[in-house]
Amino acid sequence: MKKVLLSLLLVGMVFVPALTKSASAGESAVGNGSALTDALQIGEITGLGDRQVTIKTKFEKSAKTYTLHLLPECYVMTAKRADFKKFSELKKGDLIAAYGWYKDGKWNARRIDILDTNDYLVKRLDMDAKAGVYFKHEQY
Amino acid sequence: MKKAFALSLATLVALVSFAVSASAKTTVLTPFDKRDWHVIAPQDSDAPLRDYAILYDAGGVDGALGVIGIPSMRTYRHIKCGVDLHNFPFSGSNAGNNNGTPDGKYLYVSDKGSDTIAEVNLQTGWPERIFALPKPFGIHHSAALSPNGKYLWATGELTGKMLKLRLSDGATTVIDVPPAPSAPDYPDTGRAGNYVFSGNYYHSTVMVFQQDPFKLVKEIPVGKNPHGTNVNPTNRVVAVCDKLSATLSLIDVQQLRVRKVIPVGAGPLHNQWDTLGKYDYLSCFVSDSTSKIDGIRGQLVDEFPIHYRVGHNSIAPDNAYYCSQNKFSTGLFTPTGIVFAVNFELQDIDETSPTYGKSVKLIPVDGEPHEGRMIFANYIQRWNTGKGAELFTKGYDLGDVHISFDKGPGLAKVRPQLEPKHADNTSKVWIPRDDGKPGITKEGDVYVVRIKAFSYGYVPRFIHVPKGAKVRMILTNIDKAAGLTKNPDVTMGLAVYGYYGMRTMLISPRGISQVAEFVADKAGEYEFYCQHFCGPLHLEMRGTFFVDPPGGQASLANGDYDSVSMQEQLLDESESEFIVGTNKLMNTLKEGNEPTI
What we know:
The structure holds 2 protein chains of 2 kinds.
Chain A: H1 2-23, E1 40-48, E2 52-57, E3 65-78, E4 84-85, E5 95-103, E6 106-114, H2 120-130
Parallel strand pairs in A: 3-6
Antiparallel strand pairs in A: 1-2, 1-5, 2-3, 3-4, 5-6
Chain B: H1 2-26, E1 53-58, E2 64-70, E3 75-80, E4 90-93, E5 101-111, E6 116-121, E7 126-132, E8 144-145, E9 151-156, E10 161-166, E11 172-176, E12 184-189, E13 195-200, E14 205-210, E15 215-221, E16 226-231, E17 237-242, E18 247-252, E19 257-263, E20 268-273, E21 279-284, E22 289-294, E23 299-305, E24 310-315, E25 321-326, E26 342-348, E27 359-365, E28 372-376, H2 388-394, E29 396-398, E30 401-403, E31 427-432, E32 439-443, E33 446-454, E34 457-459, E35 462-466, E36 469-477, H3 482-486, E37 491-496, E38 506-509, E39 512-520, E40 524-529, E41 542-548, H4 561-564, E42 579-581
């Protein structure tokens, strides 16, 4: 009995903070790194499924993993010049910006931009992160 | 000898073949007779004149949208939409920055003069429907699209109301925003379907509305007279330009409170986030500059001088350029008439570019444009390559997503080419400065209304005429120091919104008065406002025109609003089926049945 209680306590210590951190109403996401409730996620593709993309976030203090579900109207394009791509042209390792929203337990993507690693803004986010100014860790 | 000759020959042959193969890599132009003119994909023989992005600007007093190429800054065309255009979202979704996530089908531009929203088909290049808003309303902006693209929010600046509009049929839900006076101003929507944010310059607050069901949930105090209110692409903060405090307030979207106030250039009016939410660019009217804010550090990190007083702004969809949409052009261009051209100034914001922070193009622009938004050029299909029928009936693809046109009311078989009227049923003349006493006098059966305009107000501010009166309205600019701006070319304007918008639209540079004559045949209380940008408090320059019904005084509850809401005067009679909305559909939305995301 004692062991069961101890296990429950341990489980609670591990999972409860994680659950409350994800998306409780009224709690600020600002300054705390990326959140499931964000409408923009930036990361590298680590997995591809049926209109699903898994990304590992970039430029943050600690990378997070999100699975993005593409809405039927979600298109894929390059962030430079908007060359429209097919979903099948996405590949692991691509750096993407995904725009969408969290609803009903899923992160729904409305648009996916394939980022150019030579773009000044991507370089800036990279340089800032290396200098300790992390994306989505707003300093206010 | 023979050996040496053979060796030289072999070397020569090798050199020639190397040169040929090297040159063969550099140029391949499709021969003229081999070119397939019906292929839409870009070819190497395309003329090098194509722009990669298009800036659409709501042309203000022009009543037309401007279509300008980026980065060439060439004006391609104007699309006539109505009376006094202010701003628009592209159809699709609001995901991303102010440019949204377009599908290339439409944009929805607010017309403050006629109190309508025009739906412009970007593929045909003409308006297709006019959303007639319930009266009285007094729209200013309609910038706010829902994430799923099915709804718009618009601010009734001139009556203190807000509305949610269903794009499929123009049905609306309208709510009042007390306490009066209340001026819902520039709105933006939360990217995750939660809130709508709108500045209120009378309250110096940002109002927060729930999208679904639509209701006011909070007012957040910010700096004085807030204007541009833009949600970050991450949906974590809202940036608010505190016009008279020279600050930018950053509001936490989840906690609904101000987290940080950043001192910026003087007179911040509008702001534009880049697509990654890293930087926010502000147009600062009084300091003649673009302030660049680091959205992570919460600091002003750069400031670019601009040449002339700025109003609105826009940013390229790839974040490479920023357009400062300036309001005055003193001494800059060749005069072309009483009304001067304003100007657009393109700035390079690519930090790796040798011209970073510099103005790279400056062009004269007609009208007095308000909001601009940019879209990648290849959303707009090539209709003139033999593919027209297919585009018309089937639509087009963006990658593996198919886009087709709705079959909305009246649109089952046709794509209308509407050309809304700009200034109809009006007799207007210019006269030398009129020095008559301000107020109303009666000359025969004509009510002569003399109005003096200055920075920033009118004398008189309240005007009463009986219904059916013949009105002669004379606007005279009595500005001396041109207010805070010190610009000698300040032009004052007066437009009575809604039904009388097309009948007024008066403009008065210093030394010249303008006169409009019309019959006040629709009773009601109608705000008038300065439609020609004159300085930082231009927006707050207002008055009221009462057309009193027999035996009573006009008010927001007493007027011919049902009749006025039909907006028949904006289109030809045969096109009236393309006017949707009106008072008949007021409050018919079934909130919650059709969510906004």
